[in-house]
Amino acid sequence: MAKYIIRQSLSLTGEVAISGSKNAVLPIMAAALLTDARCEITDVPALRDVDVMCGLMRGIGARVNERYGDRTIEITTEAIASEEAPNELVKKMRASILVMGPLLARTGRARIALPGGCAIGTRPIDLHLKGLKALGARIVSKDGYVIAAAERLRGANVYLDSPSVGATENITMAAALAEGTTVIENAAEEPEIVDMVNFLNKMGARIKGAGTNTIRIEGVARLGGAKHGVIPDRIETGTFMIAAAVTRGKVLIRNAVPDHVKPVTAKLGECGVDVRALDDGLIVDARHGVLRATDIKTLPYPGFPTDIQSQFMAFLTTVRGSSVVTENVFENRYMHVNELNRMGANIKIEGRVAIVEGERLLRGAEVFATDLRAGAALVLAGLSARGTTRISEIHHIERGYSAFVEKLKGLGADIVRAEE
Ligand code: EPZ
Fold first, then answer.
1. Cα–Cα distance measured from residue 293 to residue 412, given in angstroms and rounded to the nearest whole number
2. What are the mean pLDDT values of the chain's consecutive 10-residue runs (420 residues total)?
3. End-to-end distance of the chain based on CA atoms, in angstroms?
4. Pick from 89, 143, 279, 342: most CB atoms within 10 A?
């Protein structure tokens, strides 16, 4: 079984280049299903989830040509061979649900395995279905699948009870080819949605308001091909910002968008870490002064990202004072707490709140990754901990971080990936 073996690595220094965003490239690949013309996506991250999405697209009938050399994927879907996202793929990657809107818009049919829950929550899709129904789809659930059908999708007004990222993406993609105008209220505002909409508009869609809570989509009869470079991954950016902070180092993070990580910059600043924004990156310097505690509350964008909560908590275990972490987005996103406590942290959970007693000298231990970002948090804790940390179940981590070991080694980290 593959593991990461990490020895204490203080004061990371040097520079790291951030890869393309996992949570942007997945909806963008799904959006390519909306046309029979050739789409070219560049700056694609080398991730397990991208491989799964390529497999799903091929099963649907897309011709997918992956050019690893220059991180480019070409997708041409001349005809849809199957309107199905099968259970084995949806189980592997919940984002498979994002082909539902495009399939419905392109062929009038979609049969998607219901994504089960995962380590961080039940992950319902009621808001996706509410939006697609509003556009005219008839939806039934049968044998663990959701089957949607619509002769023609018609624009509608959709209010999202909560600003779901995936529901906003699915409804926007379906509405792009609907007859008439759709307005999504209380839409999610994440940068990954803006990136997907920029790609759709290059294809000929007429969408305004992405990045705000109201998105207006004027349906068009057809969409053409487009070429698009994926934005840098803001969650990977935040993870490396915290790698510099938790090891008290100084790191130059290139190919990052400072605007997309403002909450992390602000919170690291409150702890006494110096973060300087550059045109295409950031410098994080945690070498000076005594770092202190702060509180974080996760919220939909532009609030503090839930996907960086566990990594930031690992850092908070090492600073002076007591911090209060409140996870407002998912109902069970503290799976990393037990593992951090086994490394000597002192974290107590009370419902949605975790109280972190800081200034702990973490000790290396045998721990396991329960989910993608919890695993990343354990890597960061292992860099700070005295001794050796062994992390198993690292497939969770490798879904969302490309060349993670190489990038950390480039900053001076003592980390190897070994089969044990
Ligand atoms: C996206 O997931 C991201 N994944 C997640 O990143 C991220 O944590 C999440 O947005 C929140 O920012 C991708 O983009 C591929 P949501 P998504 O729908 O779309 C509830 C990572 O680590 N909800 O915004 O599934 C849901 O239960 C992953 O990269 C409903 O109630 O997130 C959750 O509590 C993890 N009904 C909240 O909304 C619905 O129909 C946020 O979910 C849909 C969601």
1. 26
2. 97 98 98 98 96 96 93 97 92 94 97 83 90 97 94 97 98 98 98 98 98 98 98 98 98 98 98 97 96 98 98 97 97 95 97 94 96 97 98 96 98 95
3. 5
4. 89
- Contacts of residue 63, Cβ cutoff 8 Å, sequence gap at least 6: 74, 75, 76, 77, 78
Question: What number does CATH give the domain 2-18+232-419?
Answer: 3.65.10.10
Q: Is the pTM of this model over 0.90?
A: yes
By the 8 A CB rule, do 312 and 334 touch? no
Distance (angstroms) between ligand 1 centre and the Cα of 118 equals 11
| Architecture (CATH level 2) of domain 22-229 | Alpha-beta prism (3.65)
Residue ranges covered by each domain of the chain:
2-18+232-419, 22-229
The strand pairing partners of 38, in sequence order, are: 76
- Kindly give the pairing relationship between strand 181-185 and strand 145-149: unpaired
